[in-house]
């Protein structure tokens, strides 16, 4: 959520988010993050404006 708070309105792809935060970009790590972001979308904290894209809900 830190990256989303620092850049409100910016749309992130999961791989871009990992690179921005300095996290590993291997497929298992990306899948875990994708799952967590999906949970945040369902909870109403994030929007998903397109497939594989996430941004902070305004």
Task: Give the topology, please.
Elements: H1 2-6, E1 12-13, H2 14-21, H3 27-42, E2 46-50, E3 53-56
Antiparallel strand pairs: 1-3, 2-3
Characterise the protein shown here.
By secondary structure, the protein is an alpha+beta fold. It is 50% helix and 19% strand. The protein is built from 3 helices and 3 strands. It has helices at residues 2-6, 14-21, 27-42, and strands at residues 12-13, 46-50, 53-56. It has a 3-stranded antiparallel beta sheet. β2 (46-50) and β3 (53-56) form a beta hairpin. The longest helix has 16 residues, at 27-42. The protein starts with a helix and ends with a strand. The model has no long low-confidence stretch (mean pLDDT 91).
What share of residues are in beta strands?
Answer: 15-25%
* Helix coverage percent: 40-55%
Rough shape? Answer: globular
Largest sheet strand order: 1-3-2
Task: Give the overall average pLDDT.
Answer: 91
Total number of strands: 3
Structural class: alpha+beta
- How would you sum up the major sheet? 3 strands, antiparallel
The CA-CA distance between the termini, in Å, is: 13 Å
SSE succession? HEHHEE
pLDDT below 50 for ≥5 consecutive residues: which ranges? none
The tally of helices reads 3
Q: What would you report as the Rg, rounded to the nearest angstrom?
A: 10 Å
């Amino acid at each position: 959520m830190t990256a989303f708070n620092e850049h409100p309105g910016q749309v992130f792809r999961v791989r871009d988010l990992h690179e921005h935060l300095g996290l590993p970009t291997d497929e298992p790590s990306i899948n875990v993050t994708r799952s967590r972001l999906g949970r945040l979308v369902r909870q109403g904290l994030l929007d998903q404006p397109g497939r594989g894209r996430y941004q902070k809900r305004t």
